[in-house]
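Re: duplicated header lines in exported structure tokens

Our pipeline writes sequence and tokens for each protein into one text file. With two proteins the header for the second block appears twice in some exports. Here is an export where it did not happen, for reference. First protein block:
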Amino acid sequence: MAEITQTLVVDDFDKTQAADETLLWVFDGEALRSDLTRENAAELRAAIKPFRDSARSLGKQKVVGRAKTKRAARSVPATPVPDEEPAAEPIDPRWFRSIRNGPVKIEAAKKKYRDMARKWGEQRGFEMGLRVPQEVFDAYHQYRESKGLPVGPASVGLE
């Protein structure tokens, strides 16, 4: 006896209709996936368009997974939303951690910052292992602030 199992993907927003497409996007550093009808997907795109148009591009990002429609032969390109925090909010204390699949320029700048912190810590007697301890990054950040030097991503030209 043969058995066929079908999965119905329902719109995540209104949960009343079958979803037509899957959108992969990023907001506040969190990767999100939304299964939506064509109408709700268009509404989402229209809502973020003014913010997307005024944002700075970080280049192409590697997105794990693939956007899908009902027909498997046709795929809809993912629409990542640039992750941008207002300047008034504090910098994430772990911004320099590598995500290993980010844009080359950004990952190189993060590595430069880690190398600068490592060298600074070694000169001041901090014990280093394979990874630079968070306490070294914290002390380096405070040192740069006290000297009036740029801190965070701005210290390596990312802002």
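Second protein block, exported in the same file:
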Amino acid sequence: MLKKDILYICFHKPKTPIGFLISLWTLGKYSHCEFIYNNQVFLSNPGGVRTRKFKYQKNMEIYELNKNIDPKDVIEFFNTAQGKGYDYLGILGQFFYASKVQNDDRYFCSEFCLNAIDYALQFILTYKLKSLKDRVGYQFNPSKLYKYLKEMELIKEKEMI
């Protein structure tokens, strides 16, 4: 059971043909990620940046985020991004490491999650000696984000539901 007032990040294993293609292309076990807070999901997918009610699915792996990541800050970031579109070109850029196709007004799931976490941590995260504030988040797919958060000790053990 998920606890009240605790921020979680949820990684989805693929269950659709597109999800399987994503995990195959990225050589990872996850095809999507999103936040869960007080029974609400905060996400970016082909419907854009939005929220919906949480409903558990068997393909989910849910992790509690580090206490230094204030849920209020993640929600504040979400509020600035809400309604923005899905970053289809950013996904292509991710696959081909081409930041020039990234759209700063759109997010794909792992890009949204990583930027929200970095915002909540006051832009202290780095990757390959670059600040994530410089929008290098396009380089992170859901599986790579999971590994990064684990290495940075920003997620705990998997929640059992």
